[in-house]
Structures are given as C-alpha cells and as structure tokens.
Amino acid sequence: MPDARRPGPHVLVVFGATGDLAARKLFPGLFHLMTAGLMPEEFRIIGSGRHSPGTDDEFRDQVREALEAHASRGLDDEAWESFRSRISFQTSSAEDGSELAEAVTGLEDEMGDGEVRRLIYLSVPPSAMEDMVSMLGSSGLADRARVVMEKPFGTDLASARKLNAAVHEVFGEDQVFRIDHFLGKEAAQNLLAARFANGLLEPIWNRDHIAYVQIDVPEELGLEGRGSFYDATGAFKDMVVTHLSQLLGLVALEPPVALDAGGLRDEKAKVFRALRPLDPEQAVFGQFEGYEDEPDVEAGSGRETFVALRAEVDTWRWHGVPFLLRTGKRLKHKGSAITIGFKAPPLRMFALHDGSAPSATNELCFELTDRPNVTVDLLGKAPGPRLELVPATLTLELGEAGSDLGELEAYERLLHDVMLGDHLLFTRGDEIEHLWEKSQPLLDDPPRSRRYAKGSWGPEAADAVGGEAGWRLSR
Question: Going by C-beta distance under 8 Å and a sequence separation of 6 or more, which residues neighbour residue 316?
C-alpha cells in the first residue's frame, strides 16, 4: 500500500541554488526529508541561476559544504551519496530557460513511466519574480508544476496586484505556494491546536477576557551579507507585512468551518480585511548605530532596521484589543513569541509577597521555536502563614508527544506539504493584497528612523508601544 506521507516522483528546480537560503535551509531540509523517508522514492534536484558554480561535481561539493555547516542532524556518508547522485546544476535566466527545460524533461524521461511532478522554488528578489514567472510559462516549465514563491510578495499594493495577475497568467492558484516559514513552525500550529481543541481557551479568546496580544521577534544578528536586499526592503516589509502579520491572522481568526486550506485561509483573509489601516502615529521605526557602514548600504540611508507598532482588528471579537508587533536587528537577545495577556480580576484582594500590588496580567506565551514551548504565567500563594502571592509558571511539555515522523523544521514541513499539494500553511493572493492595502499609510508616511545602540532593545520610544505590561521579551 502506498505511503500517504510520501509524495510521488518529482523533479525539483531550485532557483538561487548557490544563495544563502538554499545553503541554510533548502538543501539541508531536503536532505533530512530524504533520510526521514518523506521524499519521493524517485526524485531529482536541479539547481539553477545565471552563473554556473562550475561542473556538477563542483556544485555537489558546495551542497555538501552547506550540509556540513547547517544540517542539524549530521551528515551520514551513505545518505549523502544517495542525495549527491540526484543533484545537478543548469544555468538559466529570466530571458532564456530553454536549456533548463530540456534538462528537466531529460530527467523526467530518465525516471521512467508515470507522471512526474515538478516543484519550482523561486528564491529570487521581488524585482525578478514577474520576469521569472513569464519565463516559466514560455519555456513550458510551468506544466505539471507547483511553484514556491518567497516573500516579500510585491513591495506595495500595486506591485502585489501586478505580480498576482502575472502569476495567474501562467499558473492556476492551486499551483502557487506563497511561502512564509513562520506558518510552518510547530509553535504557530500549536496555537491553533491549543485554542480550538481545548474548551478551557476558546470561550475566553475574545475582547472580554484578553487585554492585549504581543507578537515579538527580536534578532541579535545584523544584515549578514544581505545589505543590498535589506536596504531596499527594511524591517517593515521584510518582517511585519509578512511573518508578524501572518501570526496575527492565526491569533485573530474565527473558527473555520473545517481545518483545511480553504477554511483557514478564508478566515485569515477576513481578519486582514478587518485590520485597521496602520497608523504612523502608532509606530516607531529605528536603525541600529553603524548601519550605514554595512556593505552594500547606501550612504545616508534612513532604512529602518527596527519596527514596533500597534495594530487593531475591528471585529466583534477583537474591537479595542491592541495587537503589539515588534521586530528588529542587532537587539539585546534573540527570541520569538506570541503572548496573550489576559485581563486582571475586577477586585485585587491580595498583595504580592514583597508587599506591592499585582500589576502584570496572566499571560499565555507560545515561543516560536522549532521545539514547542508553551507557558502560562499565573499568581499563586506564597508558602508561609500569610495569604500573599508569588508569580508561578505552568509549562506545557510537548516534546515527547510528537508523531512517528520525528521533528520537522519549518522549511522541511512546508517543502513536504508542497510536494503533497497541501496549501493549509501557505498564504493566498487576496490575503497579501489586504495586508499591503492596510500597510499603505505607513508606506506613504513612515516614521523617522530613530538611532539605537547595538545590543539594546531598540529606541526608547518603542517601550511605550508595549503598553503598561511592557514587552515580555524585554522584562
């Protein structure tokens, strides 16, 4: 009996195969899927780009170096030889994909009878997407293909609409997988499970009980050789319109009729329609000191490397609840968390052990790590003769309750879903257009980027955005 977890035969084409994303995530992810028995029994991988890395063997050596540096589960020689034999490279460009198309059809013929699916991964800049999509159509590579498109999808509403129209001239929407790897994280999916599978949470998941939501993704790293991309994009387009907004959608959506791609994405799209246009007065932009000295950054650039803002969703469930979003480069600590802050009881009958009144609300925190970690912050009685309170934390341990597939990192899970044709954790074109529409006020009138020291928590003005409780990851 066929294994439902194992896709059928595939040829995978990776554009940008010599780039950073391919080295850190794509090739290590595909290698782990193979060793876990989740790749097709028959598959081939063709790396592609304008410039050849040399012979196929030289390209394979580059891939091995990437696996040695980034494969989280080690590199077994026997498994590597199996993987290596399936890898090749073929140059192509947005103007000419004929040789690549010939290479793909040649591998399909080599793999024997039966339909062979194509997975095309476009790890290319937004400015190149439209031309690349056109080439895929004219060369015939789009036939039987599923295409994975990296964020950001467009740079504003007009460009997103234009790109969507260009994509739909070549691909049906069922062939398009707009990837946002935050949706592939176990913690993001745990949020859905915790809310919809537990009668304890769903009845209180609303404005009557929730005081605020924080979605916080600070980073210690800087530009890491991505100066040209980052200076053209910035933290708002790179992180807020994409990752953080998608997480907001998961928190705020109504229960879907069914937990399938159609139901989940319909409800997320409704959230983004109900999102208030982002107010420049409710946002703080920052830039770390020394940013202009980074390679490939323009002199005098005012590009933001930090964003903190308040968003609101005008629905019956969420009216008046602030969604507080923060992200930035070169901050004090790395971390990723969704924090749900609950309202305090109407009467404060107790004092804390140190004599002060309780100020922080109860919080439910989903850490956005590959290993699930969910905590609940409560107040309990301090040991001793007096009725005083101390903070207490409950931790939900999920590490031993995983499936027999083992743990998959976000890109691994999503690549596997693409090969199976599952759109559940991918974004739809209308979602992205709604987000760009609601972002337009900030694009038209961005706040001045305030300088902040490397290793700090960003501009001091951002502290106020975190509200009375403050940012959880800064406390």
Answer: none
Q: Any bridge partners for residue 14, and if so which?
A: 47, 121
- Joined together, the tokens standing for residue 32 give 């782990």
Cα Rg for the chain, rounded, in angstroms?
24
Residue for token pair 């100020």:
359
Instruction: Please provide residue 10's backbone torsions phi and psi, each rounded to the nearest 5 degrees.
Output: -140, 145
Which residues, given as ranges, of the chain have pLDDT below 70?
Answer: 1-4, 113, 347-361, 370, 372, 398-406
Q: Decide: residue 383, CB within 10 A, 0-12 exposed, 13-18 middle, 19+ buried.
A: exposed
CB of 49 closer than 8 Å to CB of 15: yes
The rounded distance, in Å, linking the Cα atoms of 325 and 267 is: 20
pLDDT of residue 62: 96
Per-residue pLDDT tens digits for 80-104 = 999 999 999 999 999 999 999 999 9
Q: What is the dihedral of CA 447, 179, 97, 39, to 10 degrees?
A: 150
Query: Based on the number of CB atoms within 10 Å of its own CB, is 229 exposed (0-12), middle (13-18) or buried (19 or more)?
Result: middle
CA pair distance 260, 276, nearest whole angstrom: 27
DSSP string, 113-135: SS--EEEEEE-S-HHHHHHHHHH
Question: Tokens standing for 357?
Answer: 């009144």
In percent, the amount of the chain with pLDDT more than 90 equals: 75
Local structure of 218: helix, strand or coil = strand
Contact 341, 365 (CB under 8 A): no
The answer to whether residues 220 and 330 touch, using CB atoms and an 8 Å cutoff, is yes
Compute the distance between CA of residue 80 and CA of residue 327 in angstroms, rounded to an integer. Answer: 37
CA distance linking residue 437 with residue 272, whole number of Å: 9
Torsion from C-alpha of 199, 202, 208, 214, nearest 10 degrees? 130
- Tell me the catalytic residues: 243
- Distance (Å, whole) CA 50 – CA 125: 13
Give the tokens for residue 409. 């990192």
Whether 181 contacts 411, CB under 8 Å: yes
Listed in sequence order, the residues at least 6 apart from 442 whose beta carbon sits closer than 8 Å to its beta carbon are: 236, 278, 280, 283, 309
**Distance (Å, whole) CA 289 – CA 23:** 29
Asked if 257 and 263 touch (Cβ cutoff 8 Å), the reply is yes
Evaluated on CA atoms 198, 200, 205, 211, the torsion sign reads negative
Helix (H) or strand (E) segment spanning residue 311:
strand 306-311
CB-based contact 10:43 (threshold 8 Å): yes
CA atoms of 33 and 236, how far apart (whole Å): 32
Task: Give the separation between CA 220 and CA 313, rounded to whole angstroms.
Answer: 30
The amino acid present at 450, given as its one-letter code, is R
| Cβ-contact 146, 13 below 8 angstroms | no
Instruction: Name beta bridge partners: 452.
Output: 288
